[in-house]
Specification:
With about 250 residues, this protein is of the alpha/beta class. It contains 11 helices and 7 strands. Bound molecules: NADP nicotinamide-adenine-dinucleotide phosphate.
């Protein structure tokens, strides 16, 4: 159920969404548009962002402004977001971008660590500073079971997601404001370019149970209805909750 007082509170500032042109990001942006948020949409393709912004205004967004940015480079990122937000505080950050190039050479590793860890950590710090001034807000960081399972070669995806979960954990334990929430979402499997590329590169995955069960739209709806106003870890696929639980008790 939508928590109306909470939504009203979150609408005091802007909602920044990374990966807004992606599968889950787009659906989450649409949910927030229907709740009449002011949106800052991030992705890499200015044309796709422009079209998305127009569609989201039709869906009900109060405003929808786009910022084309490659998260592999964080230089100037905070200033660009600040400028796009137009001095309004960030009241909601949803980090939905993700990159998994799957190679472990130094360049790939650094690029994926930037996209999956350094850039979102910088944005989360920035959002938290705004939220501490207004004493309310919601940070949503998309993670993955790869944060837990890792890979022998140690990709920037699994390491980045693992790091991001620790960043969130620290934010949660340091936070003293009851109306600031930091949520890590492990979304389960959804059919998307990122999912398909990961599957193609890892033949072993194809033999297991790795079939998307939910649509991105259903997951986005669930994040808005059950995730807003919450801090901690939200593991959306019950099978993955078992994996998380087992990883906590099994020696490595
Ligand atoms: N799909 C799954 O089964 C699954 C499972 C676990 C976790 N997740 C997580 O869920 C989130 C959403 O993933 P998805 O399935 O919706 O994937 P997706 O449709 O492939 O979207 C990925 C998004 O990341 C953005 N992105 C990639 N590299 C970027 C870069 N260098 N700079 C800026 N943006 C970049 C893409 O931007 P462009 O639109 O510009 O390409 C795109 O919007 C990700 O954080 C992912 O790790 C997904």
């Amino acid at each position: 159920m939508i928590d109306e007082p909470l939504i009203q509170d979150l609408r005091q500032g802007v909602a920044v969404i990374t990966g807004a042109t992606g599968t889950l990001g787009r659906e989450l942006a649409a949910e927030l548009a229907r709740l009449h948020f002011d949106l800052v949409l991030m992705g890499r393709d200015p044309h796709a962002l422009g079209q998305l912004a127009e569609w989201l205004r039709d869906q009900g967004a109060r405003t929808a402004t786009s910022l084309a940015w490659n998260l592999a480079d964080s230089t100037g990122l905070a200033d660009a977001v600040r400028q796009t937000a137009g001095e309004r505080p960030i009241s909601l950050l949803a980090h939905c971008a993700g990159a998994d190039h799957g190679s472990s050479d130094a360049t790939s590793l650094q690029r994926d660590l930037s996209i999956n860890l350094h850039a979102p950590a910088l944005l989360a710090d920035m959002a938290l500073q705004d939220m501490q001034k207004t004493r309310s807000g919601q940070i949503i960081l998309l993670s993955s079971n790869m944060a837990l399972l890792g890979e022998a070669r140690g990709s920037g995806y699994s390491r980045g997601k693992a790091g991001l979960e620790r960043v969130a954990r620290t934010m949660i334990s340091d936070n003293r404001e009851p109306d600031i929430h930091v949520l890590v979402v492990v979304p389960g499997l959804i059919d998307s370019p990122l999912f398909r590329a990961g599957l193609a590169r890892r033949p072993a995955w194809q033999r297991h149970f790795l079939k998307p069960r939910q649509t991105a739209a259903a997951l986005a709806r669930c994040i808005v209805e059950e995730g807003l106003g919450r801090s901690g870890l939200m593991v959306m696929d019950p099978r993955h909750r078992v994996v998380r639980w087992m990883a906590g008790i099994l020696p490595r």
